[in-house]
Every structure is written in structure tokens, then in C-alpha cells.
Amino acid sequence: MDYWIIATFIAVTFQTARFVLQKVVLDLGLSTAGSTFSRFFYSAPIALFGFLIYLTVTTLPQVGDGFWAYVVAGGSTQILATLCIVELFKSRNFAVGVAFKKTEVLMTVLVGFLLLSETVTPLALCAFILGIVGVLTISPPPLGHGGWRAMLWNRSILLGLLSGFLFAVSGVTYRGASLLIHSDIPLERAGLTLVAVLTFQFLIMALWLSFREQGEMQRVWNARRSAMWIGVTSLGGSFAWFTAFTLQNAAYVNAVGQLEVVLSLVASVVLFKQRISPRELIGLGILTASIIILVLLA
N or C: which end of the chain has fewer CB within 10 A? Predict the structure, then answer.
């Protein structure tokens, strides 16, 4: 099995655990921004400390022009995407919310072509389209609340689609940044990109909370017994994602990452005691089928 697939499996496991923890922390009273900031607050210092230790045994590789532009673009869109997904958790079933987020798989194809001129095979594109069918199959709102217009334009779907697009941009720009690092070691390129992104995200969100949500940083600290694990799982997941993005086209990585839908379904039923409707199960099943096709193609 290719290394990028293994890295993606690890990333999916960590990310599902982080989303579960973020839902728990949200229930503790943190705002959407506070819950989002907790992942950077507790992961950036660990990443920076590890990076400084790494520099004691090696030299810092050079980066090409455009590296920091990709870092800022990726870091910013990931923050916005995370805000959308946390808001989505307030209004939708946990597993279904993650499924809508997975529209990033399809959007990454377009974003990757526009930014990095990367393409996918026709068979892979068919698998991506199958994923669209899965998303559209997932339970819509009752027809009594606006009919088909409400089905296609309700708040949950819009948040899901927006988060998918923003995550697509962040994934492609992270790959773009890692490819501009002059190193033959994939883990080194992934690690340096991760440290740069986390440092930017920590600083920008700290400034935002200081001016717009005074007192929220203190609440993030007060929730440290739970929130600190968000940072740990976020760091593990991010390093695995960045490694996968360094090794493979972001569209393929995000497509295989749809395994997160299956894990989120398990989390919904086992941890949150939520019920999944037959329609939602069919939609999630179709999404899972698209993953299997892509793994076989890899």
C-alpha cells in the first residue's frame, strides 16, 4: 500500500477524534471561534518545540517564492472552514455534518487544476461524482418547510458546501507550499509546512479573539482538560494530512479521506447516541463506495 494512503488513514482517525472532542468542548460553553482556536492554542507550541529540537540536528531547508503566500492562503481558509464545520455541528447530525464537509473531495479537483495544474484520471473523476450522489442522498429537511428550494438551500447544506470549498483550497495550497520546500525528505517538507501554518493560525486567531471576543481565550484555557486533547489530535492529524499532501495530488488524498464519514457515523451512534435515518445511511454508503473505488485505483 502506498505511503500516502497509510498517512491518510492515520489523518482520518486523528481528525475524527478531534471533531468529536470539538463537539464536546462546544457543549462546555466555548464559542465557535473559541472551539476552533483551541486546536491551534494547544498544538502550535508542541509543533514549534518539536521543530526547534529538529533544527539542533539539521539545517533549515530553503523555500521557494510563493511559499508564504500558500501558507497564509491555506491557513486562513482552513480557519474559516473549521468555523463552518463547528457551526454545522450545532444544527446537523454529527456524521451527516462531516459528510457535507466531504464535498471538498470534488472541489479539490477544480482547485488543484486551477492552482497547481494537477489533474485526475477519468475513473477517479467518476468516483468523485459518485461521492456527489452520496451527498445529495443524505437526508434533506422536511418538504413542509419550503419544499425543494429549502431542500437545496437550507443553512446546513450551505455551511457544508462552503466548508468543503474552503477545505479544498487549504489542502491544495498546503500541497503547493510543501512542493516549494527544497528538500528530498517528505516528512521534513510536511513538518516545516505544518509549523509555518500552525504559527500563522495561532497568531491570527489570538488577535481575533483579543479584539472581538474578549474573555474567550481565558475560557479556552479553563477548558484545557478537554481542549488540550483537541490540540494533540489536531497535531497528529495535521502532520499526517500534510505528509499525504506532500506525496500525492490533494484530490486523491481528500477522496480517500472520506473514510472519515464511516468513523463519524460510528461516533454518532456510539458516543452521542444519535440515530441515523435510512436515507442518511444510503447516502453514507454511496460515499463509502466511492472511497473503495479510489483505493482500488491507487
Answer: N
